[in-house]
Design a protein that fits this description.
Oligomer: single chain
Helix content: over 70%
Largest sheet: none
Structural class: mainly alpha
Number of helices: 3
Shape: rod-shaped
Amino acid sequence: MSVALAIHQPCPDLPHYSLNAEQKLEGLSRIARVKEQLKESQLKGLRVDRQNLLNQMVNAETPRLAVLLQRQIDDIDAKANRICERWS
């Protein structure tokens, strides 16, 4: 058998290399947990930034400044929505 022919043929599914149902379930639950942790780590900073902007908006001296801060808050909300969609 040539090397080129062997590369294109997949290996048979050997039972001693397969995962059992419990291992598969554990792996899937770990993947879900890591995805949730990544999502929360990205959202954490956005929540802090959003709260700071809200505090600045409440204490804004001019309506123009309040509108600019509201736009920044809206941008943060859009980023948070994209992150939630990405890691769902």
